[in-house]
Every structure is written in structure tokens, then in C-alpha cells.
Amino acid sequence: MEIGVVKPVRLEDEIRVSYLDYAMSVIVSRSLPDVRDGLKPVQRRILYAMNELSLRHTGPHKKCARIVGEVLGKYHPHGDAPVYEALVRMAQDFSMRYTLIDGQGNFGSVDNDPPAAMRYTEARLAAISQEMLTDIEKDTIDFAPNFDDSLKEPVVLPARLPNLLVNGSSGIAVGMATNIPPHNLSEICDAIVYLIDNPDANVDELLEYVKGPDFPTGGIMLGQEGIRKAYVTGQGKVVVQAKSHTEEGRKKRPRLIITELPYQTNKAELVERIANLVKDRKIDGISELRDESDRRGMSIVIELKKDVQPQQILNNLYKRTALRSAFFINMLTLVDGQPKVASLKEILEYFIAFRQEVVRRRATYELNQAKERAHILEGLKIALDQLDLVIATIRRSPSAEVARGELMSTFGLTQIQAQAILDMQLRRLAALERQKILTELEEILKTIAHLEDLLSTPAKILAVVKSEVLDLKSKFGDARRTQVSEEEVVDFREEDLVSHQQVVVTISEKGYIKRIPSDTYRLQLRGGRGVMGIATKGADIAKFFVVADTHDTLLFLTDLGRAYSLKCHQVPQDVSRTARGIAVANLVSLDAREQVTAVVRLDNTIATKFLILATRQGKVKKMLLQRLAYMRSNGLIIMRLDKNDELIAAELSHDSDDIIMVSRRGAAARFTASMLRDASRSSGGVRGLNLTPGDQLIGMRIVTPDSDLLLVTENGFGKLTQVKHFPRQGRGIKGRRAYKITDKTGEVIAANMVSPSETLMLLSAQGVVLRVPMDSISVQGRNTQGIILMRLDAGDKVISATWMSDNETIETSKTDDTGETDDAGEADETVDAVDADEADETVDADETVDADDADDADETVDAVETVDADDADDADETS
After folding, report:
1. What residues act catalytically?
2. Which terminus of the chain has a smaller tally of CB atoms within 10 A, N or C?
3. How many other CB atoms are there within 10 angstroms of residue 450's CB atom?
């Protein structure tokens, strides 16, 4: 453009052109590596400058400030910070799989500690860097002017090392980014050799040699699909997790030892993250956290609490921290100066083609050098053959120029040959020296023949490439660091993050639910007063509770005959025993009219086939458990109920199991589950126990071998009775007397089949919970009043009981939360003194009730006699 001439330009056009120029400059000259040597311009310039300074691995180190200054002044006119950062990264063994620079001093750490200033650190080329620069002086690559045209710099290094794959690369350009993972040198070399021998090989064949990325920090790589996709398309994702193992620590508690981290994970930030998760109670079970890493290796120690499963802690850490990280692969690289996403095979093919070109140019250079040397040696041979004449010619010449001309004309020599004769030292005239010239000429002629043959045969050039790759592997190849696991990556389910823990799930009368660890309730002797287990507000009282594992599924059954499911760990855990909890309706979609009346615990070990349901009016139903396999969020109808009836109990059963049903007034009937036919979800039930007017069913249980029937009354009394006193009968009968009901005992509120190894947990209406060992309860007959299990305050009643396996040692004292201690001598006291004569009264099995009840105490109506005549038509109705 002429000076002083103003040319109008559209702003958007100027911005477009200028931005594209800038973008291409960033892409080509700064951010993306070349597919041939795998280096960005700044890295290439650093290595070349260090080579020019003779900072090879066999020499001394020099200050990094000297190196940075050399690079800035000659080749890279940008800031010193990016040059030093690039130099530091090439020296970090946790960043580069094969470090290209041998650093001396503080070059940073895996904790993201910054390196020392460049005036303090020193560096030299690593041994493997020589493979990047070998033959650079033999015209193997092109050179271009530097930024001020004062020097020449290499466009690419000759790179015998497949650096793009073995060290990887990452960078952000304009509108694109690259992220290539590092690989194992031995595997890449094997793949190159195989591809040379089998040019048509596909990626699956190459995967036999390249198992996947090999990160300098090790770790475990999960799955194969992400690796294959990345190698086929050039883009994909691999998931790497830390390597850890479990040891036994202090007091025989487990501890996790983390020895390897995913690539580019900041160890200090990881430890801080874990500490914050423990502090915020997002991960429970960790008692102590230490970083014991030293020069011998990495070691993060995580001390666990007693009875904590290490795998659940690991799952939580994998989910919530960088112990499991995804590495997103995008193999974007410069091919012929243009950005391209290349597959594994393409990158290897580009490298092989580049090495062929390097070998060809090196052979051409060496051939030219050999021919030039042969030309001189041939001239020297001519001179030696006519030595006296040559000497005479030189001696009679007045000057060197005249002598050169005389030699050229007399002996038919070229100017170069004539000059070589003039430059020859007199010692070369000795016989031995003359033979050396002849021998050298002979060797040179062989070299020329070899190089000409090599250049004329492409297969031989490939053989040279292959030989050099195998030599590289033998010198620098090592074992893989990152372990490749066949385990595919799956998202953690919520229960995978929850440790197994025995908990007590409590539900109140108004539908408030909570869970707390079962060991919150200490074991007491029977007759204790218990501890507060739930805070009651207003008219709300505790209803019932279930002992379960956090991984179990809770099946909530309602009075309207519907079922809802919920994982136990999804019930919010409260720290305090007396916390109110959360409304059940917040966890499952209960109708405003219905209430939870039964809870069934399902775990992974359950092998039962049927679910047995029972109603308040004594109806019973059997249905396949698999009918509840697809539980909807709004629940399922599982039983059609009669008017004024409600579902109150549910049990898991085999078809061969016996069922025992117990009423509030102490009647019991036992029959086999095979007497019930499988019914659909929407069907009703059949008569199980024929109740007397005013009586209600309070429990239905499955008869288990070596177990006794435990009955608990509302006034805190209870007893164990052997099941042999309840012979198998038909369903629909009035049953036998199972408990002698009096005003003192109150009516029966709970019944269950128990064993001596279990523990009884009682819950009162005022929220008091008591744990009682089962072996402290005596076995008595059917028609007895039992013994005192729980002492109640005035106006309080027992409203629920549950059972759990327990291995705890029984406490000899019974201190409640207020600090009061019951008299140990009263631990076995059963009733007040005035009632001592009947406290342990045990009537014979055949003695049933008072005279006025004798006519129906042992009544065992035939199974077909299930209901009154007017109900006979629907006794077996199931739908």
C-alpha cells in the first residue's frame, strides 16, 4: 500500500483475517505437537539449543537460566516463563514417561510444589534425548530461519524415538485442543516392528502389542472399550484409579495404603479433599489420614475405624475424589503443518514414513560424503603411484597455484584432488601411510556400493528403521507401570458407597422414620428400664422398628394393602437416639390416608419364594415374591382387603414352612404354607385364624427349627414357649391358648420365633428402648403369665418388639441415660411381691384356661371348618 493512501476496510473482514492469522500461528507455532517428533516448537528449540551448547548426558549440568537465555535470544522470542516451564516439565518424572532433560535441583513435585527459580536449578540432556537429535548434522531434516533471520533452526528433529506416543502431549490452541497420553516404549516399538512387517494390520492387531496408555505415575486402568475407541478414532476416554492395598493397623484395625495415583493428580489436594470429606461427614469410617510419602515412594495411609469395610471406603473415595479419574484422549497433531485427529495406526504410519525419510536423507548425505572422500583418495592414489614425478612437478612450480595447475594438467586431476595432494603431509608418503590410504579407499568404495544399494531398495530402508527401533527398545525399554484391568467401568450404585452396618430403623405412630446404629442401644438385663430411643411430641408415639443392614431393602406394607420399597441406607441416619426423624411420606409416595403397618427386610441372601400376608381380621394370603420385582415409585397393590380390615403382618416363606398366627387375646394356630395357594397381587385372602368377637390378630410368623415362640405383652411381660406345644393344624380354626391374659400382663402385642443367641429389643409408647438377651428369658408353658421383661413408667406401654443377632457382652449394670443404676439383685425379679406365688406359674400343656373358657381353650376345628355358615362361600376366595 502506498504511503499516505487511505484504503477503506470492512471491520469484520479485518477482524476475520487477523483472527485467522493469529489462530493458525497459535495452532502451528505454539500449542500442537508435530506428528513426526512429537514436540511443540518451544520443546524442540530447548532440546536443539542444549545440543548446541553440548549439554549432553555425558557432560556436566549447566544453569537453567543459561539455557533459557540461549533459547530466548536465538530461537523463541517470547517470555522466559513459558520456556522455563516447558524445560521443567521435560525434567519431571511424574509428568513425562521418559524424561528428556536430566534436571538437578528442585523441579517441583507431585504435590504441585513449584520448581525453584531457574537461577538455582541446573540441567543437561537425558540419555534418551540423544535419540531425538542423532544425525541432525547429516542433513536429515530441514532448517528454517529463526525469528530475525540471523540463524537457522530445525523444522523438526530427526527423532528416532516415537516421542509423540511414548511421552504424550497436551495443549490448548484456538478452537481445538490435544491430549495424547504417554505409552510404554517397549510396546510402541513392538507395534512399529509389527506394522513394518504387516502394513495392512488393523488396530485390533496392534492392540495385541499396545495394551493402552502407560502413565508415569502408574495406577490401574479400567476397561478395554475406551482404549480401543481412542485408538480407532483418535478420541476416547480411559478411566484410571489409584493402586492401593489393605493392611492391618493398630489394634488390628484395617488401614488403606495408596501407593500410586492417577496421572496428573495433585497428591496434596487429594489428601486435603479426603480430610474435608471426613470433616463434613460425607465419608464415615476414617479415623486418621497421613501422607507418609518419601524418596522411596508414595504412601498415603488411611486408618479406618473398627468394623468398617475397606471396599466401601474405597468406593466412596473413587466416587468423590480424584482417586479415580478419567483421561480424555484427543490425538490431535500436526500432519504436514495441518491439525488432524489421527488414530493409533496413522500415528505409527506417519512415524515410520518420517523415519524412512530420515534414513534416506542420511544415506544420501553419507553417500555424497563418501563419494567426495573417494574422489580425494583416488587423487591421492594417483599421486602415490607417480610420487617422484608429482614431487618434481611441485618443486619446479614457482607457487602453489602454478603447482595445482601443473598437477591437474599433467595427471588429469580435478582441482579438489590437486589441492588434496598439495595439502598432504609428508608423513603420508611412508609405506604404511600409503597402505592406509589404499585401505580407506577400498572401504569407501564398499560403503558407496552399500549406500547406493540401500537407496535403490525401499525394503532395505524399512529394515534399517526396524533395526533402529529394536535397538532403541533394547537400550531404553522398560516394564509397564500402569496396570490394565479387564474390569469395565461402571457407575457406583449408591449402596456401593455405603458400608455394611447393622442399624435400627424406627417408625412412629404418625409416620416418622429414622435409622441409627444398633450398638447405640447398649445391652441390658431383662427387667431394665431401657434408654430413650425416640422423642415423642404431642400425641405421636413410637410404633415399631426393624433391625437391618444398610444394604438391605425395606418393604413397607400399609394398612390399605399397598407395598413400597426403599433401600435401608436411604433412610436418613440420625446421630441422636431421641431424634424425631423424617416423615416416611418424604421417602416413599404414601397416600395421605394410609399408614405403614408392617416392614419386611429383604437382603441379597434371601432364597425364599413366597410372601405371606396377614390382616387384622385373621385373613391370610400367599403370593410369589417375584411379583414385586418391578416396584413402581408410587407402590404396588398387593392385597384386596375387606371393609374395616387392614394389612398388619408380612413374612417371607418357603412352601414347606409352617405358619403360626397369634391373636391379641393369646390364641394361636399353626398350619403349613402349602395349604395356601399362590394368589395374584390384587386378590384378597382366606381365613387363617378364626377370631372370637372383639379379638384381633397381632402377629403372624414362620415356624423355624430350634426356635421358641416369644410373646410380649403391652405391660412389659413376656415368655418363651416351645413350638412343640403348638402342633400343626388346619387354617381357619380358633387355635390354642398361647398366653394367659390378665389385667397385670395386658394383652399380647408381639410374637416371634427366636433363638437363644438373639437379642430382644423393646420399644415403649413413650419412646424408651430396651435390649434384652434372649437367654435371660425363661421357657414356660402355653397357659402362663410370663415374667417381667421391661419395667414401665406409669401410663407407658410396650408397643413394639424386634429381634436381632447379638455378639455383645451383657453388661452387669443397667445404667440409663440419667445415671440411675438398677439394683442387680432385682435383675431376675419377675413380678411384685404380692404376685410372687404366680410369677413363674407354669401350667401343664393340657391345662388351658379357667373353667368358663374350657370349652374352647384347646378347640381345634377341622381345617374345612374355617368360618361361620354365612361366610363359607368366601372362605377360600382369593380374588
Report:
1. 120
2. N
3. 15
